[in-house]
Design goal:
Nucleotide-bd_a/b_plait_sf; 139 residues; elongated; four-stranded antiparallel sheet; RRM_PARP14_2; PAR14 polymerase; 7 strands
Length: 139
């Protein structure tokens, strides 16, 4: 069901396509504009990029278009829907952040959140793992 499909698409094996080229390629395939209709988060240490669509599109259809795209195949990249998860990692948090604040923040519907089951703080890394009661509260 496309309504339940992820808004994010993972591109793997991105090492042969520089970031600027990838952004242009994604605009060409989708017909959309970066920063307006979608964002790209590069994870160079894993040779991965995550594309998140702001505009409501059929991401399953987009993944299919990517798998058929000549340039994507030439770069040996693959595209797949980002699977849902119940946990996320928040980084670069202020040193004084509390688990109560994070709970309230991530439970806010305005922030795209949902009921929080658990928060693990890692003060030495200024990060936290937030676990939601279900996978819908982590967009």
């Amino acid at each position: 069901d496309s309504a339940e499909a992820s808004r994010s698409v993972v591109f793997e094996n991105t090492q042969r396509c520089n970031p600027k080229c990838l952004r242009i390629l994604l605009e060409n395939i989708s017909g959309l504009n970066i920063d307006v209709d979608f964002t790209v988060e590069l994870i160079p240490e894993k040779n991965v990029a995550v594309v998140t669509f702001i505009k409501n599109i059929d991401t399953k259809e987009f993944v299919e278009k990517c798998s058929q795209n000549k340039r994507v195949r030439e770069f040996n990249m693959t595209a797949r829907l980002l699977e849902s998860t119940q946990s996320i990692k928040a980084e670069n948090l202020p040193e004084s952040i509390s688990s109560d604040y994070l709970t309230v923040y991530f439970e806010s519907a305005r922030n795209g959140g949902g009921p929080v089951a658990d928060i693990q703080l890692f003060p030495e890394e200024n990060s936290a793992i937030i676990t939601f009661c279900d996978h819908k509260g982590n967009s």
